[in-house]
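Task card 7
Instruction: Convert sequence to structure tokens.
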Amino acid sequence: MVWTPLHAKIHRTIRSRHLFERNQRLLIAVSGGQDSLCLIKLLLDLQSKWGWNLGIAHCDHCWRSDSQANAHHVENLAKTWDISFYLETAKESINSEAAARNWRYQALSAIAKANNYQYIVTGHTASDRAETLLYNLIRGTGADGLQALTWQRPLTTDIMLVRPLLEVTRTQTEQFCQEFKLPIWEDSTNQDLQYARNRIRQELLPYLRENFNPQVESALAQTAELLQAEVEYLEKAAQQLRQKALGIGDEEDSLALLPLRLNRRVLQKAPLALQRRVMRQVLQQILADAPSFEHIEKLTSLIIAPNRSQTDPFPGGAIAQVEGDWICLK
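Output:
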């Protein structure tokens, strides 16, 4: 086996960030593109050092006329490498990137659960992290959206999603695939500029590289990394403040059904950043969809509003009203 600097980098990353333990079962999501092929080759080469049991999963969205051939291509790679292969094919038309992503993670989780894999591993890179930061920034978001691609997050109580390549750029994965002559499957939809992410990849990032910073992808990925730690800290602090405002202990269920009451005097002592996060956490439990900035602001404004002030109804019909020292949601 040829041991490259990228092998050493990923080996160190997995160890220093505690992404996997030894002798674990890892399900690798492989599309056939350069990032996922780079990922599976790296993990195959590191397998002897870690004792992993590897499997490959491929999700066919049936978007393209060649999607079945793409699936066969990945299956043949799995046979060549003597790795278990799992295929999930969409039974209904998926009409958006977000819907496709949700279906893909549900499909991968089902495969992992049925076959006792503890980890699902994807080939997201620093370039994906940079694109996600720009995409969410353009749409309007807080720090949470800017750091959305994290190293790991739980998909279920038993299955962890892990992204070991978040410090590797797409240029590096391409060079790695060329070095080892890996048979990349070119996805034609990646060139379709009707998708916002493709426009960011094909037009915006090259412009930023040429005119502002040749290392813009790594710089943006580093920003996302810094924000991730800050978001984790703020979320934990907001959770503690929410529990205090609700008058409950750490071990109690703070996600009570309506009606619920928040102590304004407790919240008034906190910085605005934590006040907003508390209100967002509360709204996440009572709204079917993610709360908007406007939802969060109108609830936060009640912290210092006159007695008997109230909001107009939130989606679903809930109303918040000031009753003395309390904000009551009912």
